[in-house]
Specification:
single chain, mainly alpha, globular
């Protein structure tokens, strides 16, 4: 019986995929009929691509710079001297761990708030909060005040995941969600990429406090006006969206496509909270989060202390590594929309990431190490971006914000301990990264195992 269902689903999926081989900007037969029945032209507007995705992208870029800038700051000798943290790796780790744990703890509350006030108002509140917090961080005269400001930053930024997944679910037909996810997800790489370039330059030129002030101004000047003018909760609330685009989006929801990936799993609808497939995705991204935060926060320090690059060169190498990962995300988003399979890509990506990381740690040549570190991050991003797309196959549109609030809570709280864990290991090992990186490599292998289970179910 199970095999019969999978075969039928595979046939439905192929028919569904083949109904439109021309990309996401043309209306397929079903969508065209829907638009015509509504008495509209079949030439749909593209507000979802010209306004929604650019807004999400900029929000994520700025948000990731505000989160990841600390990885460059803690490698700066002047900062360590000013706050008397020269030999306090565990305390340095808490500057990120505290933010991430607060991020996770606040995410379910943001999911609830979004259901009350909508995505647009929620993200505007979030942006205003973190712009103020950046200024407070720059004014910090003690470790305690800086840590507190980082915790509040985590609370402010916790809106991002539930807002973003809800916006994508409301604004994009299922066949475009791989590309839409890739569009905002590259912000998670462009942010750290620009951090390596921009924050390094700001610190070298103006000092570590000035970069916090600059980031506070950036949050208020750029993404906040975008959210106000361009973002709307649903297509029907934007007068520039015509009936054809609204029909295209509505017809493309998972609830309206019996042959869509994951749809057969919804033949007997159950709550997302009781859906084991949802929890496999969450568990995999928890272990991915352990890898990413442990790796990204300590990468500049690793390049500086273990591979003996200068402070400036370590920051600029970070820019190159994240730039390569950005290109990977774009390619994976396009490819996964064509084959409509996310789990196999995620599993292979995470498997390769662990192998590349451990090899990079063990090779003596520092140039080869940087190449392998780059490959590790690219493979890891192929994994996590594909896993993010899987949510749209197992969670309904109306449940997306709340489900993401809870998912983000578990992911950030459990994954957030990685930076302080690595910092503590460094403190007890005299700065040796080998064991810490081995744990990070094992984490993405666990994530790959979760994806193997989902791949067997056709996702």
């Amino acid at each position: 019986m199970a095999s019969h269902k999978i075969v039928r689903w595979q046939e439905d999926k192929n028919n569904w995929r083949d109904s439109d081989n021309s990309g996401g900007n043309k209306v397929d037969t079903m969508q065209a009929n829907t638009a015509l029945n509504a008495g509209t032209s079949t030439q749909a507007t593209n507000i979802r691509w010209t306004s929604i995705t650019p807004t999400l992208l900029v929000i994520w870029i700025v948000g990731m710079i505000d989160k990841s800038n600390i990885s460059i700051v803690i490698a700066n000798p002047q900062f360590l001297q000013d706050l008397n943290l020269q030999h306090s790796q565990a305390l340095l780790g808490w500057l990120t761990t505290g933010l991430i744990i607060a991020y996770g703890a606040a995410a379910p509350a943001w999911g609830w708030l979004i259901s009350k006030v909508g995505t647009r108002h929620a993200v505007m509140i979030s942006l205003a909060m973190w712009g103020i917090v950046c200024v407070v961080s720059g004014m910090s005269a003690s470790y305690g005040l800086l840590l507190t400001s980082r915790i509040v930053m985590g609370i402010a930024e916790a809106a991002l995941y539930p807002v973003t997944l809800a916006v994508v679910a409301n604004w994009f037909p299922l066949k475009e969600r791989g590309r839409a996810t890739a569009f905002w997800w590259i912000g998670t790489m462009i942010g750290p990429m620009l951090t390596g370039l921009l924050i390094t330059w700001l610190i070298v030129q103006f000092g570590w406090r000035a970069q916090f002030y600059a980031l506070g101004a950036l949050a208020v000047v750029l993404p906040l006006p975008q959210a106000y003018f361009l973002l709307r909760d649903k297509p029907g609330e934007n007068p520039r969206v015509n009936n054809a685009e609204r029909a295209l989006i509505e017809a493309g929801k998972i609830e309206e496509n019996d042959g869509a990936p994951g749809r057969i799993l919804r033949s007997n609808p159950i709550s997302w909270f009781k859906n084991h497939r949802y929890w496999l995705i969450v568990i995999s991204i928890i272990f991915n989060s352990i890898f990413f935060w442990g790796w990204s926060v300590w990468l500049p320090t690793y390049l500086k202390t273990t591979r003996h690059f200068t402070f400036s060169k370590a920051g600029y190498l970070t820019f190159i590594i994240y730039g390569c990962a950005t290109l990977t995300i774009i390619a994976v988003g396009l490819f996964s929309d064509r084959i409509l399979r996310r789990a196999p890509i995620a599993g292979v990506g995470w498997l390769l990431s662990g192998v590349f990381l451990m090899t990079a740690t063990l090779v003596p040549d520092r140039t080869v190490c940087v190449v392998l570190m780059t490959l590790s991050l690219c493979a890891q991003q192929a994994g996590v971006s594909s896993a993010q797309m899987l949510y749209h196959s197992v969670v309904g549109t109306k449940d997306m914000a709340r489900s993401q609030g809870y998912a983000t809570g578990f992911i950030q709280i459990l994954g957030g301990f990685a930076p302080v864990m690595i910092g503590s290991m460094l403190a007890h090992s005299g700065g040796d990264f080998t064991l810490g990186f081995a744990i990070l490599a094992a984490s993405v292998l666990v994530a790959a195992g979760c994806m193997a289970a989902l791949a067997r179910e056709g996702l």
